[in-house]
Write a structure and sequence with these properties.
0% strand, mainly alpha
Length: 227
Amino acid sequence: MSLDAAGIGTAIATIGALGTAAFGLVDALKTLPNGGISNSGYSQIERSLQALFDDKTRKTAAGDVKRLFDTLHGNWINGVALADQKAIAKSLIKLRLDADTSAAFAAATDVDAATLKSAGEKMTSGTTLDPKEMNVLGRFDLALSAILDDGYQHADQKYRNNTKIAATIIATALALVGGLAVTTNPTAWDVCEALIAGLIAAPLAPMTKDLASALSAGVKVAQAIRK
């Protein structure tokens, strides 16, 4: 392909379209059991929250803990906004603050267990909290936010990385199949071109339009200077 403005723009647009198609196929993988690719990263959330539930809680309230994680998993695979997911998770966990969970919650967030237990009991009964209990509850809230941020940010990073890897694999496979389909006697260079196109297609897809315009403008400037 000639290295003029039109040729460069066409090449970038074509590779970008390949990346977009690959991401579309990755999105279709969400229909697989357990959420498919959308399930990626959720284990980070569950792992970060496990510290809030000790062995006793897992045994005596196993069904309730499972319902909590099922709700969080449903929100995750359905792509609810990250901020909303964290807010929902925090609310659901704070609703479970009582005499049975206060010790584990306090240990995980490094606050006084007895005061947190008292605060939880008063919240359940609708009794007004004293200043000490409000202070401990505020510290618990901040620590819980940090735990949730850690879990959800790592989960989001893992999900984005895995989807990019999956899209790159699909784009590379499509580029190889397409390249070999239109070439009668493919050479090693033909295969290399297809591999390169597939490998850069996924990263290129989100910025195809801007990059094509920028490179085309750069080529025109270079051509004008040479004249």
